[in-house]
Automatic annotation (TrEMBL):
This is Aspartate kinase. GO terms for biological process: homoserine biosynthetic process; lysine biosynthetic process via diaminopimelate; methionine biosynthetic process; threonine biosynthetic process. Pathway: Amino-acid biosynthesis; L-lysine biosynthesis via DAP pathway; (S)-tetrahydrodipicolinate from L-aspartate: step 1/4; Amino-acid biosynthesis; L-threonine biosynthesis; L-threonine from L-aspartate: step 3/5; Amino-acid biosynthesis; L-methionine biosynthesis via de novo pathway; L-homoserine from L-aspartate: step 3/3; Amino-acid biosynthesis; L-methionine biosynthesis via de novo pathway; L-homoserine from L-aspartate: step 1/3. Its cofactor is a metal cation. CDD domains: AAK_AK-HSDH, ACT_AKi-HSDH-ThrA-like_1, ACT_AKi-HSDH-ThrA_2. It comes from Pelodictyon phaeoclathratiforme (strain DSM 5477 / BU-1).
Length: 823
């Protein structure tokens, strides 16, 4: 073999069926026009798992191992049936059957002895590659390619750690060159397996065929090593978890190593080393899409791949256990770490992550769950004396954790990376349990709750890789306000994407009867027909439970209901670090204990809680009040009209309309509460004053607001909204007269209120026709703040204070305020 040689390694999915193997042969045949090739193959998809299953079944005395072996037989023979015919089929079938019969003997032995050593298991697992290499080499011959089967046990020498053997690079290199450099043709080498010096079979660890390819490439000084798999290359994050992940056209050896160590399954972590040492580029290619450029892994960044981003990629290991050893007796005592690592190494416990703070009080390790119990036992034994003497505390393990690695050569010397990382995690309420960063500054690893893994990956990815950020909305209520809100989001979404780099994604909608979810965004044109009936038991709690389970990053819950039950959920939402934007007043105007719980939750949460539309709909009333207060102004009084409905009623009565008919019009216009009696009774107005009073710092309950009702005495019993509206015409005459009488005195009637000295009173007032209140029209609200700074001329906020569009606009603005905090 000469200097133009490449290693092509094909993974199990690339060989998963006869048609896949044909595609692989096409790739090889195409490449042979210009290159010499050495082929390395993994076992066919699922085969290693079946081999493992057969062996463990046999060991536990389960005769089901026979049907597992039959399945292996069927899988290989049926592929052969499709690939071959005539005498070649007979030959291939015979060679497969010969391998399988040897396998059968071994597994039967395991069954009889009920004993499965690492050595026997390594032998059993090696059959997968033996079978696939036979199949592929024969099929290449069928395609007139001078291929031949080559067992890697004749090439790669390892120690006797059968499951995860260490390679003797020198001896292997010599054997590889001796066997291969003189040969003509295309060798098809079994990946994964190797041999100990005594010739017994060993394996290079799960996924070790990549390693085989790299060892061969290094020994033969190949031009390139191509790893053919089923994805287009290394992604910036696992695309199954992060939808916006992108292909990385180039990464360095060290980045590849860091990423694959931390869970990126594209490449076996050990496979980088031999290639890196020999300076041979590794390429990740997709056998399902050979035209895709793939990822090139090399030492020096080619100019056209030069990157400016500090972070190259993310990866994660979704099951780790943290083992924490701490105690005052560890401080300043040399040798503790050495004893710890030596004993774990001796027992081949793989440490994924280490962290120790400068206080030396504790050392935290992350290990795989399968090794956790063993590791704990070993350490308890090694440090028994110190634990008994209470110099070291009892060891603590913590499960259900995930480790995330943020990797990039450019992170080194780039201030702000960790700040950005922890900020985005913090705002999303993701608790970082442990952190490690080495002094090479190219990997920050963190351990978090496993439940937060996808959320963390997505928010970190978005923060470092994407110019466009997302917020995920879950809306409760599908009535007037929600409908207008959806319309506004739908109309403005593209502008926000283009001008503000913000994507507002509506992921959930629910009312009392129906529900709709889509993590990727509900179709805002057709959401109403897509709503599905919700199960009885799924009240608002069910909706919230689903939102929590989805655990999307940058989530905002938007309350467009008038439900007390929904408002009761705000503290839980905030404590789950879900931001809340609400038009519903029953939280901030709820009972004092609920109000306190919301405020406390808000203080303890990293999420935001905004409710500007609770008072005067979209008008800036609460924000104005807080700006005055926060900037040190003293507020003497707040007066005004804070009911759109009542304002509309009196404004229309002045023009000569009928009371009952005006109330109906207010309802149709979307000014009223779902039940207009909430407006007519003054309750809605009172709630707004209650909110303003609390905002001013007063401890007020609803009953503290003195409030006059417009619901006539005789209609106050139990009745439906429709019945109430039907009967309301009975008071038309009375209101007409009231306005007429007042007009004769150059006065008119309005419903207004004031807060002064901690007391809130609201009710029907006679005001001069010349007063600003009498000048209101439509649903206009007006708030007059008399303050130290605005004493001679009070500050006035005036404008439409009810209705779908203005309220939804206010809700939307609050959503964007939360978004600008989150992203
Ligand atoms: N209409 C307006 O001008 C303004 C309204 N608001 C507030 O906006 C909120 C919504 O008002 P509208 O849209 O006019 O009311 P609406 O009656 O048209 O809609 C309310 C929606 O909430 C849903 N809902 C009720 N209880 C629920 C629960 N437990 N779980 C899930 N969904 C539930 C209903 O099914 C309905 O879809 C109210 O709190 C109101 O006070 C605030 C400012 C102005
Ligand atoms: N029903 C309310 C709507 C705003 O909160 C009103 O009439 O003001
Ligand atoms: Na407002």
């Amino acid at each position: 073999m000469g200097g133009n040689m490449k290693i092509y390694k094909f993974g199990g999915t690339s060989l998963g069926s006869a048609s896949r193997i044909k595609k692989v042969a096409d790739i090889i045949a195409g490449a042979l026009h210009q290159d010499e090739l050495v082929i390395v193959v993994s076992a066919i998809h699922r085969v290693t798992d079946l081999l493992f299953e057969s062996a463990t079944q046999a060991c536990s005395g389960d005769s089901g191992y026979r049907s597992t072996l039959n399945e292996l037989d069927h899988l290989h023979i049926s592929i052969a049936d499709e690939l071959f015919s005539g005498s070649l089929l007979d030959d291939v079938t015979a060679s497969i059957r010969a391998e399988l019969s040897e396998l059968n003997d071994i597994v039967q032995g395991v069954f009889l002895l009920r004993e499965l050593s690492e050595k026997s298991l390594a032998f059993v697992l090696g059959f997968g590659e033996r079978l696939s290499a036979r199949m592929v080499s024969s099929y290449l011959q069928e395609r007139d390619i001078a291929a031949f089967y080559l067992d890697a046990r004749e090439l790669i020498v390892t120690d006797t750690n059968y499951a995860d053997a260490r390679v003797d690079t020198h001896a292997s290199g010599q054997q590889i060159r001796k066997r291969l450099l003189s040969l003509e043709g295309v060798p098809v080498v079994t990946g994964f397996i190797a041999a100990a010096p005594d010739g017994s079979s060993t394996t290079l660890g799960r996924g070790g065929s990549d390693y085989t390819a790299s060892i061969l490439g290094a020994a033969l000084d190949a031009l390139e090593i191509w790893i053919w798999t089923d994805v287009d290359g290394f992604f910036s994050a696992d695309p199954k978890r992060v939808r916006d992940a992108r292909i990385l056209p180039y990464i360095s050896y060290s980045e590849a190593m860091e990423l694959s160590h931390a869970g990126a399954r594209v490449l076996h972590p050990l496979a980088v080393q031999p290639a890196m040492k020999a300076g041979i580029p590794l390429l990740i290619k997709n056998s399902f899409n050979p035209a895709a450029k793939g990822t090139r892994i090399e030492g020096v960044t080619p100019l056209d791949f030069n990157r400016t981003l500090p972070v190259t990629g993310l990866s994660s290991i979704n099951k780790v256990v943290l083992l924490n050893m701490s105690g005052s007796g560890m401080v300043g005592v040399p040798g503790i770490a050495s004893r710890l690592f030596t004993c774990l190494a001796r027992h081949r416990i793989n440490i994924i992550f280490i962290s120790q703070a400068s206080s030396e009080q504790s050392i935290t390790l992350a290990i795989t769950p399968s090794q956790a119990a063993k590791a704990k036992k070993i350490l308890e034994e090694v440090f028994r004396v110190e634990i008994e003497a209470r110099q070291i505390d009892p060891l603590v393990t913590r499960r259900n954790l995930a480790m995330i690695a943020v990797v990039g050569n450019n992170m080194s010397g780039h201030p702000g990376v960790s700040a950005q990382l922890f900020e985005t995690l913090g705002k999303n309420g993701i608790n970082v349990i442990a952190v490690a960063q080495g002094a090479n500054e190219m990997n920050i690893s963190l351990v978090i709750d496993a439940h937060d893994e996808d959320k963390a990956l997505n928010c970190i990815h978005e923060s470092f890789f994407l110019s466009q950020r997302k917020v995920h909305l879950f809306i409760a209520g599908t009535g007037t306000i929600a409908k207008s809100l959806i319309g506004q989001i739908s109309a403005h979404r593209l502008n926000l994407q283009q001008d503000n780099d913000l994507d507002v994604v509506v992921c959930g909608m629910a009312n009392t009867r129906q529900i709709l979810f889509d993590n990727n965004g509900i179709d805002l044109q057709n959401w109403e027909s897509a709503l599905l009936p919700r199960d009885e038991y799924q009240g608002i709690e069910g909706y919230l439970q689903l939102i929590r389970e989805k655990n999307l990053h940058n989530t905002i819950f938007v309350d467009c209901t008038a439900s007390a039950m929904v408002a009761e959920m705000y503290p839980d939402l905030l404590l789950a670090n879900i931001s809340v934007v609400t038009a519903n007043k029953l939280g901030m105007a709820g009972s004092w204990p609920l109000y306190r719980r919301i405020r406390d939750a808000q203080r303890r949460s990293n999420a935001r809680f905004l409710y500007e539309t609770n008072v005067g709909a979209g008008l800036p009333i609460i924000n104005t009040l807080n700006d005055l207060k926060n900037s040190g102004d003293k507020i003497f009084s707040i007066e005004g009209v804070l009911s759109g409905t009542l304002s509309f009623i009196f404004n229309e009565l002045r023009k000569g309309g009928r009371f009952s008919e005006i109330v109906r019009r207010a309802k149709v216009a979307g000014y009223t509460e779902p039940d207009p009696r909430d407006d007519l009774s003054g309750a809605d107005f009172a709630r707004k004053f209650l909110i303003l009073g609390r905002e001013l710092g007063f401890t007020l309950e609803y009953s503290d607001v003195v409030c006059e009702s417009l619901v006539p005495e005789e209609y106050r019993g139990e009745m439906s909204v429709t019945e109430f509206l039907d009967r309301l015409s009975g008071v038309d005459g009375w209101y007409a007269k009231l306005i007429e009488d007042a007009a004769r005195e150059e006065m008119t009637i309005a419903y207004a209120g004031e807060i002064r000295d901690g007391k809130a009173t609201i009710g029907v007032k006679k005001v001069p026709l010349a007063s600003p209140i009498a000048g209101l029209s439509g649903s206009e609200n007006m708030v007059v703040y008399t303050t130290e700074r605005y004493r001679a001329t009070p500050l006035v906020v005036r404008g439409p204070g009810a209705g779908g569009e203005v309220t939804a606009g206010g809700v939307f603005a609050d959503i964007l305020r939360v978004a600008s905090y989150l992203v």
